[in-house]
Amino acid sequence: MEKRNIILLDIDYITKDEKAAVRLFGKIKGDEQGKNIIAIDESFEPYIYVISDDIKLCRREIEELNPEKIETVTKKNFQVESQFLKVTFKHPQDVPKLRDTIKHLDSVKDIREHDIPFYRRYLIDNNVFPMSEFEISGEILESYPSINSSKDSMEIIKMSSPPKMIGGEFPELRILSFDLEVYNPKGMPNASKNEIIMIGISSNVGIEKVISTKGEDLDYVETVENEKEMIEKFVAIVKENNIDIIVGYNSDNFDFPYLNDRAKLLGVDLDLGMDGSNLKFMRRGYTNAATLKGLIHIDLYLLMRRYISLDRYTLERVYQELFGEEKVDVPGDKIWQYWDSDSEDLVKLFEYSLDDVVSTLKIAEETLPLSLELTRLIGQPLFDLTRLATGQQAEWYLVRKAYEYNEVVPNKPGGMEVSSRKTESAVGGYVKEPEIGLHENLVQFDFRSLYPSIIISKNISPDVLLTNSVNNIARINEDENDLTDDDYYISPEYGIKFAKKPQGFIPSVIGNVLDERLKIKKRMKETDDPTAKRILHVQQDALKRLANTMYGIYGFSRFRWYSMECARSITAWGRDYIKNSMKKAEEYGFYAIYADTDGFYAKYIASKE
DNA sequence: CAGAAACGGGG
DNA sequence: GTGTACGTTTCTG
Question: CA A9 → C1' B8, Å?
Fold first, then answer.
């Protein structure tokens, strides 16, 4: 039996003897090369919850489907303790196969937690957070020089007990950025015709080069015979340097698909996975994501769209925004001409290629700390996190919290439900159009975090909502006649009621997030160590972003805890507060000349007469 | 005017 | 893979 402290980079599962085997891709902590490890856990099983009014009958009906196990458990459903049947399956794929059958059984009212991917379920139930350190123990199945390189070795361990969270500091991650330049005489290149002319590579392990068939007199260019060798060289460099994170700019949509097409055409294997597996593309709705097992691919374009707010998100624009410097520029449609020129323009193209990839790495180093922090906060793999909308990030945070609170998670809405939700909308914040003119003697007034304060102080949460709606299943049966006006908050305009007790699930979570942020800000003030300060700053920033997302989330059509009543109540109270403040200010001679949502500007007029 | 389609980024 | 996920602008009937 061996023990290892590892940093979890990635997770998936494979099928072994008709059962699921979870694979944790990590690197061994303390090993300066960051030796790779694949830890296999065969002990975790998929399950769902079933709601029924006739538990006995329901159990008999489900038994006929021959699941692995059926148990009766007590969990909270919108804070009401209820009995559930926990049905365990033999294989994760049995869940999508059998859930519809189960759902339509006569004795079944509803099914829950049937839409949580298996590896995410594993992370949540085992309290495992990617990019954190934890201890595993088990038997070494294989130990050999890595499939990927001759340099260092890799271990495969069969785990004998669940992983034990340690937390720990962030590991040193080996990051590499890459970028293709392609011959493009007809505008955007076509992978079946146009060859790759350059592959730029930059890495924090000390690589900065361009691989190409030309440019032999430039010191940063590694010249090869042909395009095939170019791709092989690229693959070799990534493998040899034991890279943890590979970054590109729009690489989900351009660089990786193009590289994949050309590699296929030329017969080169892009077997960059930690387990030796090939590059794959996952369909993620409207776009594809390029994935490598145990080697995290981050497309910075996707990330930047969420990280900063800009009019455009070209690499050039983003770089300028973050660093205030201009990049080397070659007009995209002229790249083929620069390549053909064999003069100073060719050199310029090489400079452009190198500059692109150096800038990409620089952006990655600047912005990854936040993504890593969010990964540890949300508890989903870095790869997933960088591709999740902020609303989805907040939702997965809540799914984890629900597990902690012993709450059963609401179902993800189906397509029909999403479109019907989209037809509803909440009135936004109060806006008073500015009075035109030059104003003097202005005072500014605003509420500090108006919406979160309202959610917490008015206990706005679907689980304590007293108005009849799809979301208040738990409270429908409660006798509202037993409650007096003192027992609930009533929203302005709509008269929507929220029980004062118990504290709602979401107000509770938001409250904790804000408390945690204040604690970190306090620690930030107390420390003089600049490194500690920087880390704490990123931590509070992650909490702030998470909290900010939660304020508007009740109105997101795909949100599991969606509630238009909650969304409307928040803004209604918001409008109420701002209007009352304006009225109050007027009594003291301050007249608002402009107001928006949570604040206003007012002009002081000394006397009314 | 509503609903569908295209776009973003990349070369 | 306990899959099929954006938000906004422009076009089309």
Answer: 29
